[in-house]
C-alpha cells in the first residue's frame, strides 16, 4: 500500500516574463527571478519592475509564489538603492527575497519587519554552525551548498529543525563553492559575488606538475556537468529538504517549461508514495532540452572524474547514432530516433580519435530505410562529416514546440482590482452640476462650468448619468453608488460637460492618490536612511567598536600567513608582528605538537601565532578540525559558522576575507557574532575599504596587501580526476608524486592548485596581489591591520615581510614611505594590483 507524503516545494527559475508563464503553466509551486539590479544574473536574465508586477499577478492567480533574488554583495553606497528596490518589489507582490549579504538581511528586518528572507547559496552554508547563524539572523530558509551530501543535510536538519532547507535539484553547477569564487573578479573585474561571473570554470586548462613540467591532464578540467538529481528526490525529502530548486534563470522559456514539467511529474508521484526513480525514457526530455552531461551531484558523495565535462563546456545534446557515409550531396546517418527539419545536430569523433566537433540545423531529411530499431536518413548538408562519427541531437524541434505550446494558451492575469468611486450629485436649474466623489477614504468635490437647464429631451436620469460617469476606461477606478437625491429631476446637461466632470474627478482622485503614494515612499525612504545610519555597536556621538573588539597595542599589525614551519620562522625573523599558520592548505600537515612548539617559540620573541581554519568544514570533517582547535590558539576563519561559534566561546577570532564583508552593516553583524577583527573583502577598492571601516575609524580591520587569494574552493580534485582515482583515497598523488601542480588557461596564466587536508582543491590566483602603492591611503583611512599571504612554494617570505615592515614603520613615524617600494622591486612585473583601484 502506498503512503502519501508531502513533496518538497518545486522552485523554478525565470529570466523573462515568458519564462514565468512557462513555470506557472507547468506546475511550479514558486518562481525565483531578478528585477533590474542586485541579482546574480546581470546580463538580461532579469525582469523590469513592470514585468515583475505582471509576473506576480499571474502567479497569484494560480497560487504560485514569487521570490526575488537580491543575492549579490552590496557596497555602502548601494544599500539604500537595494532596500528601495526591494520595497518596490514588495509593493508588486513578491513573497520573499533571496539574499547573500548578511548586513542586508538585518536591514531588511528593520525596514520591512515580518518579510520573508531566504539565505542564498552564495552564503556558503554547508554545516550546522552556519545554519545556526542563519536562524539567528532571522532567516526563514537557507539554500544549502550544492556540495552537501544527504548525510550532511540530515545533520543540518537535526541542528535547526525549525529552519527551512532548500537544495538545488537540476541545472548548471558552479565548480567552486558558491560565494567562494573570486577568480572571475580577479581576472576580468566581473565578480561572481556581484552577478557578473565570467565563467572562468568553462575554459579549457592544462594540468601540469610544477616541479617537472610534465603535463598530467588537459581539457575542460573544472567545467562541471549539469546536476540532475531526479533519482534522489525521495532521499532529499526524507533528509529534510523542503524546497527543490531548478537552476536556469538565463535559460529559455522552453527549458523552464520542460524541466518544470518533468520534476512536477516526478514530485507528484512522490507525494502519492511512489519512490521509484523516473525511467530512462522519462528523463530524456531533460537531457535533450539542455545538458552538458548529467551528474547526480554530490548527494551520495564525491563524484570523481565523472563530475566534469572534460571535452566540452556547453550543451552536449543526446547521442542518437553514427554517420554512415554520403549519398551525393546528402549525409547518411543511422539513428535510433529519426531527425526532423529544424532539429539541431552535432557530430563528434569516436572515442580515441581527434577532430573538431561539427554541427548544423537540419533543413531537409528523407527516409532511406528503417529496420531493427535503426533508421537511416539522408540529411541535406554541405558539411563534410567523416563516416563513423557520433551523431547527437543538440536541439529537438518537436520538444521545443511542445514546450512553447504548454504555456501559449496561459491566459493573461486578471486586471488588478479597481478602486470603487461613490458619487453624489447636486444641482438645480441655472446652477452648475456639483459632483462629490469618495474613494479609499479620499473625498473630492468638482463643479461644472455649464449651467443646468430644463430638458426638452434626454433628461438626466440615473441610467444616463451612470453610463457617462461610469466610463472610467483605463483608469484604476470603477463607479460604485450614484446618489442623485440632491439633483433636481428633469434637467439637461451636454454629454461633453459630463465627460469633463468625470475627468476632473479622476484627476483630483489621482492627485490625492499620488500625494499619498509620495508620502508613503518618502516615509519608506526615511526608514531606509535611518536604518542605514544606525550601525549596530557604534555610538552616535563617537566611534566605538563593539566591546569584544580590542584596541591595538601596537601602531600596526603585519601578519604573515604561511603553511610551513620554516616560513613561519622566516616571517618572524623579518618583522611580522603575527604569524598565521594554515596546517590544512597542503598535504601533509605538520604534527600539532610541532605547531604548539612553534607558538611557544614565537611568543618568547613577542610574535603571536594564529591558526587559519579551512573556509569549508563539512560535518564529517569537524572532528579533525577540533584536534587543532584544542591547541587554544587565536583563530583566523572564513567560515561564518565557526566565527560565530568560537567567538561566542570567547576565542580570539578574526573573520577572514571569505566571509565577504562588503559594507559596514555586514561588519557590524560579524562583530556582533564574535569576530575580534575582520579581513575586508579582496574585491573592494581603497575608497570602498575606507567606507566600510569608517564607523570604527579603520580600527579592527585588516586588508590583504600581498599574496594569492584562494580564487576558488573546489570539492572536486583535478589531480585525482587526472588519474581516474577515487577521491580521498589517492594521497600518494598529492603528497609524493605530484605535490605541486598548476592549471594553465588558454591565455597562458597559471594558477596554483593546493590540495588541502580534506582532499579539496584551493585554486590560487595566477599572480600575487601587491599593494605597496595603496598603503598610505589605507593608513590615512585608519586601517592598521595588514596581511601578507604565502601559499605557494618558493615565495620570498623574508624579503616581502621585511619590505612591508619598513614601509609600515615609515608610515607610523609619519614619514613618507620609500619612493620605490622594496616589495614592488622584488616582484618586478609579476604581480596584480587586485581590486584596490578596479571596482567590481
Short account of what is shown:
31% of the residues lie in helices and 24% in strands. It has 24 helices and 39 strands. Helix 5 (128-136) links the parallel strand 5 (116-119) and strand 6 (141-143).
Describe this protein with a few key phrases.
24 helices; 840 residues; eight-stranded parallel barrel; alpha/beta; eight-stranded parallel β-barrel
- Count of discrete alpha- or pi-helical segments spanning 4 or more residues: 24
The class by helix and strand makeup works out as: alpha/beta
Weakly predicted, low-confidence segments: 541-547
Shape: globular
Average pLDDT figure: 92
Strand order of the largest sheet: 1-2-3-4-5-6-7-11
| Strands, total number | 39
Distance between the termini: 57 Å
How much helix is in the residues? 25-40%
Based on CA atoms alone, the radius of gyration comes out at 32 Å
Largest sheet: 8 strands, parallel, barrel
Content of β-strand:
15-25%
Amino acid at each position: 500500500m502506498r503512503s502519501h507524503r508531502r513533496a518538497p516545494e518545486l522552485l523554478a527559475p525565470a529570466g523573462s516574463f515568458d519564462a514565468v508563464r512557462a513555470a506557472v503553466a507547468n506546475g511550479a509551486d514558486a518562481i525565483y527571478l531578478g528585477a533590474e539590479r542586485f541579482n546574480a544574473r546581470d546580463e538580461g536574465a532579469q525582469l523590469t519592475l513592470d514585468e515583475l508586477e505582471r509576473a506576480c499577478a499571474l502567479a497569484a492567480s494560480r497560487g504560485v509564489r514569487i521570490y526575488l533574488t537580491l543575492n549579490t554583495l552590496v557596497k555602502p553606497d548601494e544599500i539604500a538603492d537595494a532596500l528601495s528596490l526591494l520595497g518596490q518589489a514588495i509593493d508588486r507582490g513578491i513573497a520573499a527575497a533571496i539574499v547573500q549579504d548578511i548586513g542586508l538581511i538585518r536591514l531588511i528586518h528593520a525596514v520591512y519587519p515580518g518579510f520573508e528572507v531566504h539565505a542564498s547559496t552564495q552564503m556558503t552554508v554547508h554545516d550546522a554552525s552556519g545554519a545556526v547563524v542563519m536562524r539567528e539572523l532571522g532567516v526563514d530558509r537557507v539554500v544549502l551548498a550544492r556540495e552537501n551530501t544527504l548525510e550532511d543535510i540530515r545533520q543540518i536538519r537535526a541542528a535547526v529543525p525549525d529552519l527551512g532547507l532548500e537544495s538545488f535539484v537540476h541545472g548548471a553547477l558552479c565548480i567552486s563553492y558558491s560565494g567562494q569564487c573570486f577568480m572571475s573578479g580577479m581576472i576580468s573585474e566581473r565578480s561572481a559575488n556581484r552577478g557578473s561571473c565570467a565563467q572562468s570554470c568553462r575554459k579549457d586548462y592544462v594540468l601540469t606538475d610544477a616541479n617537472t613540467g610534465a603535463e598530467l591532464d588537459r581539457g575542460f578540467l573544472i567545467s562541471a556537468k549539469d546536476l540532475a538529481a531526479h533519482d534522489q528526490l525521495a532521499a532529499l525529502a526524507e533528509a529534510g529538504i523542503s524546497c527543490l530548486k531548478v537552476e536556469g534563470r538565463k535559460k529559455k522559456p522552453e527549458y523552464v517549461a520542460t524541466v518544470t514539467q518533468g520534476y512536477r511529474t516526478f514530485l507528484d508521484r512522490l507525494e502519492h508514495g511512489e519512490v521509484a526513480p523516473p525511467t530512462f525514457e522519462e528523463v530524456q526530455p531533460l537531457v535533450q532540452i539542455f545538458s552538458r552531461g548529467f551528474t547526480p551531484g554530490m548527494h551520495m558523495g564525491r563524484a570523481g572524474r565523472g563530475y566534469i565535462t572534460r571535452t566540452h563546456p556547453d550543451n552536449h545534446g543526446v547521442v542518437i547514432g553514427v554517420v554512415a557515409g554520403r549519398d551525393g550531396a546528402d549525409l547518411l546517418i543511422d539513428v535510433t530516433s529519426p531527425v526532423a527539419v529544424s532539429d539541431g545536430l552535432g557530430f563528434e569523433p569516436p572515442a580515441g580519435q581527434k577532430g573538431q566537433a561539427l554541427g548544423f540545423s537540419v533543413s531537409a531529411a528523407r527516409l532511406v530505410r528503417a529496420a531493427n530499431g535503426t533508421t537511416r536518413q539522408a540529411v541535406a548538408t554541405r558539411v563534410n562529416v567523416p563516416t563513423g562519427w557520433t551523431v547527437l541531437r543538440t536541439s529537438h524541434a518537436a520538444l521545443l514546440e511542445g514546450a512553447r505550446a504548454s504555456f501559449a494558451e496561459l491566459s493573461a492575469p486578471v486586471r488588478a482590482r479597481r478602486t470603487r468611486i461613490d458619487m453624489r450629485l447636486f444641482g438645480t436649474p441655472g446652477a452648475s452640476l456639483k459632483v462629490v466623489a469618495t474613494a479609499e477614504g479620499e473625498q473630492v468635490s468638482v463643479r461644472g462650468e455649464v449651467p443646468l437647464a430644463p430638458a426638452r429631451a434626454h433628461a438626466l436620469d440615473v441610467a444616463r448619468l451612470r453610463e457617462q460617469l461610469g466610463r472610467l476606461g483605463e483608469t484604476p477606478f470603477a463607479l460604485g453608488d450614484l446618489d442623485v437625491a440632491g439633483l433636481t429631476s428633469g434637467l439637461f446637461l451636454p454629454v461633453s460637460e459630463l465627460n469633463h466632470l468625470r475627468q476632473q474627478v479622476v484627476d483630483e482622485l489621482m492627485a490625492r492618490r499620488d500625494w499619498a503614494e509620495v508620502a508613503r515612499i518618502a516615509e519608506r525612504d526615511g526608514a531606509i536612511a535611518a536604518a542605514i545610519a544606525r550601525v549596530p555597536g557604534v555610538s552616535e556621538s563617537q566611534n566605538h567598536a563593539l566591546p569584544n573588539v580590542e584596541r591595538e597595542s601596537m601602531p600596526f599589525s603585519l601578519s604573515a600567513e604561511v603553511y610551513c614551519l620554516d616560513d613561519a620562522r622566516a616571517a618572524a625573523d623579518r618583522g611580522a608582528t603575527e604569524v598565521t599558520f594554515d596546517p590544512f592548505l597542503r598535504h601533509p600537515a605538520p604534527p600539532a605538537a610541532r605547531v604548539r612548539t612553534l607558538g611557544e617559540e614565537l611568543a618568547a620573541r613577542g610574535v603571536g601565532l594564529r591558526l587559519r581554519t579551512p573556509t569549508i568544514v563539512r560535518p564529517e570533517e569537524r572532528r579533525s578540525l577540533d584536534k587543532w582547535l584544542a591547541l587554544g590558539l587565536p583563530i583566523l576563519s572564513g567560515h561564518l559558522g565557526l566565527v560565530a561559534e568560537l567567538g561566542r566561546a570567547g576565542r580570539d577570532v578574526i573573520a577572514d576575507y571569505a566571509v565577504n564583508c562588503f559594507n559596514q552593516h555586514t561588519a557590524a553583524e560579524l562583530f556582533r557574532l564574535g569576530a575580534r577583527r575582520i579581513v575586508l573583502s579582496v574585491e573592494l577598492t581603497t575608497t570602498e575599504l575606507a567606507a566600510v571601516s569608517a564607523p570604527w575609524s579603520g580600527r579592527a580591520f585588516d586588508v590583504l596587501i600581498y599574496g594569492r587569494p584562494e580564487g576558488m574552493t573546489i570539492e572536486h580534485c583535478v589531480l585525482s580526476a587526472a588519474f581516474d582515482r577515487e577521491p580521498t583515497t589517492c594521497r600518494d598523488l598529492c603528497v609524493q608524486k605530484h605535490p605541486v601542480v598548476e592549471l594553465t588557461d588558454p591565455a597562458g596564466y597559471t594558477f596554483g592548485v593546493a590540495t588541502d587536508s580534506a582532499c579539496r582543491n584551493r585554486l590560487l590566483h595566477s599572480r600575487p596581489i601587491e599593494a605597496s602603492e595603496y598603503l598610505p591611503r589605507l593608513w590615512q583611512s585608519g586601517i592598521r591591520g595588514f596581511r601578507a599571504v604565502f601559499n605557494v612554494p618558493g615565495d620570498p617570505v623574508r624579503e616581502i615581510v621585511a619590505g612591508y615592515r619598513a614601509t609600515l614603520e615609515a608610515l607610523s613615524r609619519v614619514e613618507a614611505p620609500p619612493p620605490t617600494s622594496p616589495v614592488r622591486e622584488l616582484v618586478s612585473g609579476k604581480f596584480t594590483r587586485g581590486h584596490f583601484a578596479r571596482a567590481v
